[in-house]
Amino acid sequence: MAEDEGLDLIEVSPNARPPVCRLMDFGKYKYQQSKKLHDAKKHQKVVHVKEIKLRPKTEEHDLKFKLNNAVRFLGEGNKVKVTVMFRGREMSHRDIGSALLKKFQDSIGEKGIIEQPMKDEGRSITLILAPNKTK
58 and 124: one domain? Predict the structure, then answer.
């Protein structure tokens, strides 16, 4: 029947009893499947991770400025990675960096949720915040 109509015989479900086959143009079917996949990719939202870098000696005004940027990034739907970097003798005062991150985290409040808590990574401490879905 498939040859008479100029179509292909395609086995749709080989595990079913009895196996299910269809008569269709296989090239057209593959094209339609690729178009569906392309349209599905088109409607995806890409989430970027924006990074904000701080130092233990970051002053109040600079911290507020970076906090406003973090709130803006979270409002746009992006994740924010906050990093406190240490150099030289600052390594012995990691508690200052932890306190700075805790202050930053408290200032963000309900605008962002903690995706990854404070993590010590060598010469830096990081914190990852995600946008709060319940607005």
Answer: yes
Q: DSSP label at 123?
A: T
- Please indicate, yes or no, whether residues 6 and 58 belong to a single structural domain of this protein: no
Domain check: are 58 and 112 in the same one? yes
Domain count, the chain: 2
- The answer to whether residues 53 and 22 belong to one domain is no
Q: 14 with 73, same domain?
A: no
Could you report the average pLDDT of every consecutive run of 10 residues in the chain (135 residues)? 85 86 89 91 84 92 94 92 94 91 89 90 92 76
Give which of 70, 73, 65, 74 is closest to 83, Cα–Cα: 70
DSSP structure string for 35-65: HHHHHHHHT--PPPEEEEEE-TT--HHHHHH
Q: Taking the complete model, does pTM exceed 0.85, yes or no? A: no
